[in-house]
Amino acid sequence: MAEKYPTGKSEENHIPYEAVKAIADNILSRIQVKPVIGIICGSGLGSLTEAITNAQNIEYKDIPGFPVSTVAGHVGRLVVGMLEGLPVLAMQERFHYYEGYSLIKCARPVRVMKLMGIEYLMVTNAASGINPAYKVGDIMLIRDHINFVGISGNSPLRGPNDERFGPRFPPMTDAYDPALITRALGIAEEMGIQDVKVGTYCFLGGPNQESIAECKMLHTIGVDAVGMSTAHEVVTAQHCGLKVFAFSLITSKASLDYEKKEYANRAEVVAVGKSRESTCRELMCRMIKSIAAERGTSDPSCGCSM
Ligand SMILES: O=P(O)(O)O[C@H]1O[C@H](CO)[C@@H](O)[C@H]1O
Ligand SMILES: Nc1nc2[nH]cnc2c(=O)[nH]1
What we know:
Bound molecules: 1-O-phosphono-alpha-D-ribofuranose, guanine
Shape: globular
CATH superfamily: Nucleoside phosphorylase domain
């Protein structure tokens, strides 16, 4: 059992290893495959799940102990099945800190994936381009993050550490697997994706958009794209030893200039996601296919190219 907090009570949302295992076992008992890859779909990028064959859908609300999404229009379900020859479990969609959950709860599904036997975490998100060279519709492979929410101590790993998940002080160097980034660059070139970016994602708490002064600061400290997710999931994944691949779809450009204001809205995020969904889907599918080939489990009959 995880140790108790100094107050004698477990902090809200901090559930012990055994409870996470119970959620994992509950899902495993209801599905026909044993997933190797976990996928977290970003806003507007959930259509990847349509490429999953023999799909079984499980609503978050039907999984005891699993958080439930609160954002209007969010689907909130797991889709489990085969993708490019590998068993996968996809989250359509994720939990955000601004919805009111603790980060511990937002990242709980990652620990559930780990205890289901999943080895890779593939993450997508919609983000705003801070790097002036970035255009709406660009894909940015995430090489690193600045976890603004985490730097101040708000971490999904806060509280008693259970070594069965991972070490107390996990390193974050190479949290985004460099070999998978290199592979994705090759795949993007094969696909003819124009000018794929590799950059640093910044996690802010949201839900408000950034002020112009905040955007200027993010630019100064080396941020390429900003959003309201991902870093806490990746911290949790790195802590428990999952291999991570992640990319952002740039759905808006941040304002760095008081004379040239840009505004991002939810409809725009969704519209850009829609216009780039086939490319994002194909990139992810080809990544999974390459992992399947590496593991000797390729299935030539599979293919989600559009
Ligand atoms: O990070 P995902 O889930 O893609 O969502 C992004 O899009 C929403 C803003 O429209 C925010 O939640 C932001 O984080
Ligand atoms: N913080 C933040 N997250 C986003 N996600 C999609 N667009 C944005 C944005 O402009 N700002």
